[in-house]
Amino acid sequence: MELDPVLLSRIQFAFVVSFHAIFPVFTIGLASYIAFLEARFYRTGHPVYEELSHFWIRVFAVVFGMGVVSGIVMSFQFGTNWSVFSFAAANFLGPVLSYEVVTAFFLEAVFLGVLLFGRHKVPAGTHLFAAIMVALGTFISSFWIISANSWMHTPAGVELQDGIFRITSWGEAIFNPSFWPRFFHMALASFLTAGFVVVGVSAWYLRQGRVRESASRALAMTIVLLAVIAPAQLVVGDLHGLNTFEHQPEKVAAMEGLWETTEGAPLLLFALPSQSQERNFLEIGIPKLASLVLTHQLDGEVRGLKEWAPEDRPPVAPVFWSFRIMVAIGLLMITVAITGLVLRLRGRLTESPRFLRLCTWMIPTPFVAVLAGWFTTEVGRQPWVVHGMMRVDEAITPSLTGPMALFSLVGFILVYSLVFIAGAYYLVRVIRSGPEAYRPQREEEGRPKRPLSAVDTPLDEAPMGASS
Amino acid sequence: MELIDLTLIWLVIIGLGVFMYVLMDGFDLGVGILFPFAPSDQARNAMMNSVAPVWDGNETWLVLSGAGLLAAFPLVYVVFLPALYIGVFLLLTGLIFRGVAFEFRFKARTSRYLWDRAFNIGSTIAAFAQGAVVGAYIQGFRVENFQYVGGAFDWLTPFTVMTGLGVVAGYALLGAAWVIMKTEGEVQAWAWRTLPWLLAAVMIVFVVVSVWTPLAQPRVLERWLDNAYVLWVFPTATVLVAGYVWRAIRLRHEGTPFVAAMILFALFYLGLLISMWPYAVPPEHTFWDAASAPESQLFLLIGFLFVIPIVLGYTAWTYWVFRGKVSDKVGYGH
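Above: the input entities. Below: the structure tokens describing the complete assembly.
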């Protein structure tokens, strides 16, 4: 069998970036939560906030460390596997990625050290400031990287001269047409991810009858936040979809599984799209709803995939299905958050074991939703690397052979699996040990300022407080 | 045509960025290279503690160098990385294992020896791969139409193996000098004993590479002969600095070997750039051929002028906070 370097490189990029993405999407939201807890503690001096902040900083440290390690690969992968794209887009991508390093990475690295080890070494105000700076750093970082990414979807502010993108307007390139909806969609997704993890872990402690005061307070605060953010995400997601409908209509056609241009297009709930036969099997849908959502008219026109040449269409089935998975999880999140809010208003939030169990089961769902969302938008960008301007198969490194790409792909899968297993194992230990293991002690001699080193749970000894 | 040569400014900035990385990650990679040779577990703890607070800040300079090259000299980025595909993969996995080992070693009990090994092997592979990059730069690349067209293993030659080993030895020298500065007692005594051997190894590689390079690369020989009236400074200074280190070893001056090792690296680095000048991607493309568009260079330069001084301030502050000797007790594990 012929090994295709383009396909292998795409799989490798998707694998590495998916693996990497689950860490920052969690830490962006968690950093803000920690800053909030620190601010509450600073204002009220209530020890519950300190206990919660201490514990979540420990979780943050592990996840952030994994994100840093997996992120180093990202900054070199553009060059190793996509050198033609890198050379063409360097005038835009180079400065944007460099700005990310100098404005965000250094900010996070320095103030994380203070946050982790400086509680008793710097004044309380400085410690709070450090927490806010770390949160700010995560947002600055996502600002630049979302700008680079959305430019690949909706390129602007550039012109192509002899195969090289030259900048005509920095403002238009950085704040390209899909930047804002994508940025806010991602920011809310980060809040949802951190929120559901906090809710799920707190609910687990409550079911076990541990740390009742801090766990019930964390659950009550966070469920209110989620009851606002989860529905808000539906609105922002819809705006993002309308933006895509305007700028990348073939992606929306794939998301809707729509082959023929239709007035009054149905919203399909289920279908098995066939790329080769240009039709769906086993369609179940709600009449006219897709048109209503996309055009705000029952008989609005939605362009179908057949308007584009077969080689210009994205792979329909993966886009169609990952979009449905994302939306389904989003609706489930809204249901859970609203249910929690109602329970809380009745004062019974911590008393329903069934609801608490449901909360814990929700922990993996935001991660799945985020990956499904990224698959929708990135697979939906195919066959373009820069939409409408450069194709993926033109972007590949010319000297890259199939066996080389296979070697690195298998290598990264092995290495990342090892790192992930060790990290996940460790994270579970930290959570099982619980906030009681991290009750603030007066003098921790904290010389090193490495993320994972802030965590004092031994890797291969039984954790305290819980039976395995 | 233009009042200021942006490409030259960027050459200085990227050159300093790469050099910052080499110096700063150099000594902590060196600590990893020397790890299995340390006299005891306490010594290893002390060594680890001495670099723990600063190593990931150091590695951020590598990320900055990568992104900065893409921004200012994209041709370098898109030729070096594909040409060294396998080497870059080894470098990255080395850095991953090493970084994870840093974190998990102090948490582990029964599996500690595995993390020790990961730390050592990862550091050594990363250092070797960086040395091979230098060798590959001297060798040059097959480039057509601004893309690398050579094979997967063109970079792996006896010459690049030699430069790879040279950087391993050089980083180990920096690491040993760092350990002398940051520790006391048993581990420091061991580092004093190791330092002369590492210095000898570095000087041997220096002589071999200095003879080998002009023999293998006529363009370097030509450049050396044309500029012999200035270039004699470099070997002379190298020998003088090496002698200075030798004297510091005999007199047990704690800070001198580290400073001198940094000067040695600066000499090698400058010597390399001057020998290769003005080629960014030899044998054909100069730094000006490799540069990005002036509007991109300018856009990033404006931001760098504001932000980089702040970053340097942070970095200096971190080193100040964690100044002084470490022991095997303070820090990580309990």
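Note for the figure: Strands of chain A lie at 158-161, 164-167, 262-263, 267-274, 279-286, 301-302, 384-386, 390-391.
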